[in-house]
Write a structure and sequence with these properties.
The structure is a homodimer. By secondary structure, chain A is of the alpha/beta class. Chain A has 2 domains: 4-126 and 329-342, 3-Layer(aba) Sandwich (Rossmann fold); 131-324, Dihydrodipicolinate Reductase, domain 2. Chain A has 9 helices and 14 strands. In chain A, the strands form 3 sheets. In chain A, strands 5-2-1-6-7-8 form a 6-stranded parallel β-sheet, with helices on both faces. Chain A has a 6-stranded mixed β-sheet with strand order 10-9-11-14-13-12. Chain A has a two-stranded antiparallel ribbon with strand order 3-4.
């Protein structure tokens, strides 16, 4: 009865490829998969659990026989096709920002707010990569000690900007090592913006386009999504989002202020060491702290460098790292599907 | 009368090389230069203003005929030889951390606290690279509006760890681009520590060794040096220091809280645009913000992404970038010498 037919929209992308991998090892009972992409990729073969599939062209009718659709082909594709999929009885788990802040669309990190899934009306939004890992790290602390304020500075990997950005960074790095005088930049910091800058051996304090108050869209996403996921409009959140020359694995320097007093570093370590989806890597004596390079291919969020602020007793600093393509995107999406299955929120046709 | 004889200690290092370059174009009247290094480099030739000099072995007697000595050969060398130089009548400008927190040793960023130079007893300390650029950016704001609190997360380049670290990063980057399975790491994050990790396409939340309260020495330097330079023990400062795969150019995500209310982003931009040693690069509409790659070879500190905190009215965020080898080290040292000359604090034998 409950074997699902699942479509991946944007199957050839950086995230789509990882969605396939996450589904291959998923506990979700799967009857059929369908790989959808733009006309360019149609006919290419993708293997799934030892079977070869041909990539099909994305059309409204693609969803007719499907139960679940995982979207990661850009916001404009989701805006057009997510509703078509829902009309045809699909549950959509959308990895773009198209519906994240829409009312009636649960924005879900399973470790944090899976109960919100019960309110879905067909579309569930997967939060922004940099938001997800911060939520996993902060929710257990918030639940136990209350959370007053968050200030985050990110160190974000290039894979969040897609395969073309990964290739651009590789080419730039090679050209710089070869001491070429001209370094080409056509994608980063943001493919939709006017100017492009090299990222290799550089750091770009712009992710997505600029918006209100001098903040970028990426920064607004972290701010607004955090409040929605934690259901706390009063929570103080500010973000500075920076792209660094890392292939995969986002890092975050997070400052928090708790509501409760008299909390120690050991208390926070104890809470996090038992929290779901977290690996505590926090031992200065052994130089143990999370590193983006070590996070690649892992589903967990790594937390370390936990320190009390030197001036504000309720203030703490954390270093939070995770594979942005997995927990930040593909794994969180598949995990939402698994969670919905466990909660009996999925049907099949 | 006032033509100086200047020695550079550590002349072959990443900073020593830049000290030579800064002296070559300096306004300081120079009669003679002496390049000192370890026995390994003795006999090698260095050109200075079209004249060739042989590197000499560092000895106590090296300073006998010298007026000024610029040290950048590691703390242990400074500990032994700085006092020998002072005994012989030299003014020492020391770029290591050996004497920075010592009483009677001015810790100077000329734009901020040049008056402290009058109290010197032979040794003047050059602050830590990441501290200097933050001081240049924050002092004009502090002077006008008062400063209550600083939280900084750094994105530090590898050249601060010396030439061996630069070469290691290049080799690691090439090996990773070539998809080699073993990536060697023998220097970073900190040559004096037990374990070494790759920095290429990675981010390491450790600079220098770990110390009290889970903070690294680099973090303590930023905290303690800031209070000393600004002569404000009550100032709240906390730092998270992170090495990123950038060759030169430190970046900093700085959060500040002012004492005064009703300050706007435009006010801060106006103050910084007229402040010494600062180039304001802050125009989101034109995607103008500081980039470490663009800072290389420049003496100034670049400031941009100035935003009001979304929750705390007196809170502001800044992105501060500078060439760590120049303003962060060699230029600040030579600038101290120029400033002392202008203040009539230098003598020659």
């Amino acid at each position: 009865m409950s074997d699902y037919r699942i479509a991946i929209v944007g199957a050839t992308g950086a995230v789509g490829t990882k969605m396939k991998e996450m589904l291959e090892t998923s506990s979700l009972p799967i009857k059929e998969v369908k790989f959808l992409a733009s006309i360019r990729s149609v006919g290419k073969k993708i293997s799934f659990r030892d079977k070869l599939y041909e990539i099909e062209e994305l059309k409204a009718s693609s969803f007719e026989e499907m139960d679940i659709a995982l979207f990661s082909a850009g916001g404009s594709i989701s805006e057009v096709y997510a509703k078509e999929a829902v009309k045809r009885g699909c549950v959509v788990i959308d990895n773009t920002s198209a519906f994240r802040m829409s009312e009636g669309v649960p924005l879900v990190v399973p470790e944090v707010n899976k109960e919100a899934l019960r309110q879905h009306q067909g579309i569930i939004a997967n939060p922004n990569c940099s938001t997800i890992q911060m939520m996993v790290a902060l929710e257990p602390i918030r639940k136990k000690y209350g959370l007053e304020r968050v200030i985050v500075s990110t160190y974000q990997a290039v894979s969040g900007a897609g395969i073309s950005a990964i290739n651009e960074l590789k080419q730039q790095a090679q050209d710089m090592l070869d001491e070429k005088t001209t370094i080409e930049a056509n994608v980063l910091p943001c493919s939709g913006d006017k100017k492009h800058f090299p990222l290799a051996f550089n750091a770009l304090a712009q992710i997505d386009v600029f918006s209100d108050e001098g903040y970028t869209n990426e920064e607004w996403k972290m701010i607004n999504e955090t409040k929605k996921i934690m259901s706390d409009d009063e929570l103080k959140v500010t973000a500075t989002c920076v792209r660094v020359p890392v292939m995969s694995g986002h890092s975050e320097s997070v400052y928090i202020e708790l509501k409760e007093s008299d909390v120690t570093v050991a208390d926070i370590q104890a809470v996090l060491s038992e929290a779901p989806g977290i690996i505590l890597e926090d031992n200065p004596d052994e130089q143990l702290y999370p590193q983006p390079l070590n996070s690649v291919g892992k589903k967990e969020v790594f937390v370390g460098r936990i320190r009390q602020d030197l001036d504000v007793k309720k203030g703490f600093h954390l270093w939070v790292v995770s594979d942005n393509l997995l927990k930040g995107a593909a794994w969180n999406s598949v995990q939402i599907a698994e969670t919905m299955h466990e909660m009996n929120l999925l049907k099949n046709k």
